[in-house]
């Protein structure tokens, strides 16, 4: 009954799950962020993956690119909220739209910050792919 080989320790992690949980894009095991999305101390991103040791910031200033991703997310969200506000209220009052849009930007900014970086590393970084062999349990941990 103890014939469990090393291969069985490797369970491929689905991309969607790893993406939603903001896991490392290479091993899909290590966290990218040290604390919660809405934690009061702000979001701390790990420099390196705690599981496979990959450096998240591929080159100096790499996450500046995430600002463009974040910008695109903001535009998409604002259009969505503006259309929804119009459909729900039918109002033409500009202050209503300004209030709704500014409120949604503020509420969604931690989400945008986090997932712009996740999207950048998952979809927009050439040469960075999931390596299932790295998602195995660490040996020294013995877990
Ligand atoms: Zn990793």
Describe this protein with a few key phrases.
single chain; 143 residues; mainly alpha; 3 helices; 0% strand; elongated; binds zinc ion; transmembrane; transmembrane helix; membrane; DUF983
Order of helices and strands: HHH
Tell me the quaternary state: single chain
What is the makeup of the main sheet? none
The total domain count is 1
What binds here, in terms of ligands, is: zinc ion
Number of helices: 3
Low-confidence stretches: none
Share in β-strands? under 5%
What fraction, in percent, of the residue positions are helical? 40-55%
Structural class: mainly alpha
Global shape: elongated
Give the averaged pLDDT, no decimals. 89
Rg, Å, rounded: 19 Å
End-to-end Cα distance:
19 Å
What's the count of strands? 0
If you had to describe this structure to a student in words, what would you say it looks like?
The chain has helices at 15-20, 64-89, 94-123. By secondary structure, the protein is mainly alpha-helical. It has one domain. α2 runs antiparallel to α3 (94-123). It is elongated and about 60 Å long. The chain starts with 14 loop residues before the first helix and ends in a 20-residue tail after the last helix. The relative contact order is 0.19. The structure holds zinc ion. Zinc ion is lined by residues 24, 26-27, 29-30, 49, 51-52, 54.
């Amino acid at each position: 009954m103890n014939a469990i080989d090393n291969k069985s320790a490797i369970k491929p992690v689905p991309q969607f799950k790893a993406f939603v949980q903001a896991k490392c894009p290479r091993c899909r095991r290590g966290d990218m962020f040290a604390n919660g999305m809405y934690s009061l101390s702000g979001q701390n991103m790990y420099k390196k993956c705690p599981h496979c040791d990959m450096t998240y910031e591929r080159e100096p200033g790499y996450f500046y690119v995430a600002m463009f991703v974040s910008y695109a997310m903001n535009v998409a969200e604002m259009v969505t909220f503006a259309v929804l506000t119009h459909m729900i209220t039918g109002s033409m009052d500009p202050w209503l739209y300004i209030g709704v849009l500014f409120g949604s930007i503020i509420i969604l900014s931690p989400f945008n910050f986090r997932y712009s970086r996740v999207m950048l590393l998952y979809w927009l970084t050439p040469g960075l792919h999931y390596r299932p062999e790295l998602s195995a349990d660490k040996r020294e941990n013995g877990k």
